[in-house]
Amino acid sequence: MIVEVGYAQAWDVEACAPWRPISAGQARDRDAAGLPYVVVYREPGREAPLEVRLVSWRDHYAGLWAYDDQGRRTYDMDMRLLDEPSRLLRRYTVRRHYTGPEMPEFDQGCPRITVDLFPDGKGRRTEEPQGERGGAHVTSPSLPDDERWMDRPAFGE
Asked: What is the pTM of this model?
């Protein structure tokens, strides 16, 4: 599979498109200065992006959004720079399992799994097999440190 990489100052959520595209060099400069930018991964011929990465080191934030063929967000990850400026905590993730191509993005009945992690090693995993319309099963995730934390990636990694 061929994947194209593009950069922009931000992501337009409504249009599902980059806002103010920039060059790789401009994105590298923004990364070094801690300014926000996005990285967009696309497959040629596919309308929706494969993935969007949102970066703002001045806000101690990096995020990741993955999309399906219908342009619906299927996975979100929120990572935070905490205590040590070189390590990111995988703070929050949500995985949506759309039941069919007709189900709209963020439908209240969409099954999902949400994981909240905290720096002290605690956390919460919530399974909602019927989305917000049904019950939830909540447990404490037991993840090793290498699944909670990652080294802050260099630009382009």
From this structure: 0.91
